[in-house]
Design a protein that fits this description.
Layout (H helix, E strand, L loop, with lengths): L8 E8 L3 H12 L4 E4 L8 H4 L20 H6 L9 H14 L6 E2 L4 E7 L4 E6 L4 E9 L21 E4 L14 E5 L3 H13 L2 E6 L5 E3 L7 H8 L2 H8 L20 H14 L15 H18 L3 H7 L12 E3 L2 H4 L5 E5 L7 E2 L3 E4 L2 E4 L2 E4 L8 H5 L1 E3 L6 H4 L18 E3 L12 H22 L1 E6 L1 H15 L30 H13 L5 E5 L2 H4 L1
Parallel strand pairs: 1-2, 1-6, 2-3, 4-17, 6-18, 7-16, 8-9, 8-16, 9-12, 10-11
Antiparallel strand pairs: 4-5, 5-6, 13-14, 14-15, 19-20
Helix pairs in contact: 1-14, 9-10
Bound molecules: NADP nicotinamide-adenine-dinucleotide phosphate (NAP).
Length: about 550
């Protein structure tokens, strides 16, 4: 960014992203009297729910819990149509929030922030967008989500393909009609597992290319009943308060027994009940499924047996039954009739665990030495999670050090909130915070409150600059890893570990000690006078 370029405007805070983080942040900052600009690369609000419009997209956290708690009227009035909401309903909610709190007019849509450079002299961030606008801000806040940079594998010959290609993470806005088509789906993570059953209903034929089978639990989704909604709405305040200290930021039945402390019949009965009830609460069937190998083995085998029971072709069932990594250590999937879909005549499974897809041809693709012809290819191949979107912006801190350079061996943050050498740069649900290992909206609200409270603290105290101390950051980075390595999580090649992106450093990125534990750490940090953070008061030069 050229120094001669005069900033066109200056504000207190520039926010990137109009998903659930950005919307709440904008609302709070404006209410507190901070001047803001919010840039959003999409044409509308909703973040992940704006982009992930693939057929079958649905949240696997119950809507009564996957929703904002900051406004009592909002949570009392909003009618969720289903227990687990579909993407269009969540997007409608995000739009409602934007209108209800008059946020839309403060957002620049279809605008990407390309660069943000911290200028030590003025203590301001100089920001540049792809529309050519330049502005400065005291605070630069990345509210860009954890899984927002879709990854399409660099397959040989992909550009020669004559059919249509789609990625679940950047799905077209208009309906795609697959009627009569032969389609390929590559990828069997949460997105693939949700979309395959729906695509199979419409397409003439679906061929699924599976590199790693995933554990998936039926959602048992159902229409919302008035009674169920009221059971939440009467007492929402207390329930939300409890959620904020719950291990995953959600209320669910947690069994505080070891899987090994009960008889075989009680263990199986417990799994049966959880399977029948559905949802990702399956891994809370016992208190040590994610920390003890033998306990995990019992849960993993139970799910494999369910798959063997559901899928009629025993070879297909065996290919779909995950082995070699513990249940829950890759994101546990939640589905509607996923395994049942393989009993359809128009669905085939191709195992590519031994050899990757060889190449794409003008008509289809080659895998396992066989050529397959397709009208369309759907990539459900995931995201460059946690860091990818932060690196898409050329963020440079003190002495022009690039964030990407500082994090070359993996993300380094204090509390997942800030990183040393990048004053007044905040990340909402950044790496090193519970983020994706929690109900995202619970964690988003906590981070937004913490960031806005910090800004108010600085304003009240006449402070100009906030930055983590390097020692505090180093200790936190180590602590995040120590906690992760007490669990079975590091055993899996998951995107939590950066394992889905070739060349990405392998380390566990979210903080896994739990939402309540993390919140208490943050509360203590504030009570101890923002322990681990360094502040500087306004100086004459910076105030100019
Ligand atoms: P994902 O979990 O990363 O799954 C990507 C899939 O594509 C995996 O099966 C992966 O195989 C496969 N893949 C990647 N590159 C490949 C290649 N070159 N060749 C063949 N296969 C390849 O991505 P996702 O399904 O989009 O989900 C990402 C996250 O988004 C989820 O974990 C979840 O946090 C969130 N999400 C949530 C919901 C929900 O609330 N229900 C729905 C969708 C997504 P490997 O496993 O071998 O890498």
């Amino acid at each position: 960014m050229s120094d001669e370029l005069k900033a066109a405007s200056s504000v207190d805070a520039v926010i990137v992203g109009a998903g659930f983080s950005g919307l709440y942040l904008l609302h709070r900052l404006r209410k507190l009297g901070f001047s803001t600009r919010l840039f959003e690369r999409g044409g509308g609000v909703g973040g992940t729910w704006y982009w992930n419009r693939y057929p079958g997209a649905r949240c696997d956290v119950e809507s009564m819990q996957y929703s904002y708690s900051f406004d009592e009227d909002l949570q009392q009035e909003w009618p969720w149509p289903e227990k687990f909401s579909a993407q269009p309903d969540i997007l409608a909610y995000a739009n409602h929030v934007a209108d209800r709190f008059e946020l839309r007019r403060h957002i620049d849509f279809d605008t990407e922030v390309n660069a943000a450079h911290f200028e030590s002299g003025s203590r301001r961030w100089k920001i540049e967008t792809d529309s050519g606008e330049r502005l400065t801000a005291k605070y630069f806040i990345m509210a860009t989500g954890c899984i927002s940079t879709a990854q399409t594998p660099k397959l040989n010959g992909l550009t020669s393909y004559r059919g249509n290609t789609y990625h679940t993470g950047s799905w077209p806005h208009e309906k795609v009609d697959f009627t009569g088509q032969r389609i390929a789906v590559i990828g069997t993570g949460s997105s693939g597992i949700q979309t395959i059953p729906v695509l199979a209903e419409e397409a003439a034929h679906v061929t699924v290319f599976q590199r790693t089978p995933n554990y998936s639990i039926p959602s048992r989704n159902e229409p919302m009943t008035l009674e169920y909604a009221d059971s939440w709405k009467n007492g929402y305040q207390e329930k939300r308060a409890e959620m904020r200290y719950a291990p995953n930021g959600v209320l669910r039945e947690f069994n505080n027994k070891s899987a090994l402390s009960v008889s075989e019949s009680e263990r199986q009965a417990t799994y049966e009940t959880r399977w029948k009830n559905g949802g990702s609460g399956f891994v809370a069937a016992f208190n040590n499924i994610l920390t003890d190998q033998a306990s995990n083995d019992s849960a993993s085998e139970f799910v494999r047996n369910q798959i063997r029971r559901i899928v009629k072709n025993s070879e297909t069932a065996e290919l779909l039954a995950p082995k070699g990594y513990p249940i829950g250590t890759k994101r546990l999937c939640v589905d509607s009739d996923y395994f049942e879909t393989y009993n359809r005549d128009n669905v085939d499974l191709v195992d590519i665990s031994d050899a990757p897809i060889d190449r794409v041809t003008p008509e289809g693709l080659v895998a396992n030495s066989q050529h397959y012809t397709f009208d369309s290819i759907v990539f459900a191949t995931g995201f460059d999670a946690m860091t990818g979107t932060l690196f898409n912006v050329d963020i440079r801190g003190t002495d022009s050090v690039a964030l990407k350079k500082k994090w070359y061996a993996g993300p380094r943050t204090y509390l997942g909130l800030m990183t040393a050498g990048f004053p007044n740069l905040f990340m909402i649900t950044g790496p090193g915070s519970p983020s994706v290992k929690s109900n995202m909206i619970t964690s988003i609200e906590q981070h937004v409150d913490l960031v806005t409270d910090s800004l108010v603290h600085m304003r009240d105290q006449g402070l100009d600059l906030m930055e983590p101390e390097l020692d505090a950051e180093n200790d936190w980075v180590e602590h995040v890893q120590v906690v992760a390595h007490k669990t079975l999580f590091p055993q899996a090649n998951s995107w939590y570990m950066g394992a889905n992106i070739p060349g990405k450093p392998r380390l566990f990125m979210p903080y896994i000690a739990g939402v309540g534990v993390y919140r208490e750490i943050c509360e203590k940090m504030v009570a101890d006078g923002y322990a681990g953070f360094h502040f500087e008061a306004k100086t004459a030069i910076a105030a100019e």
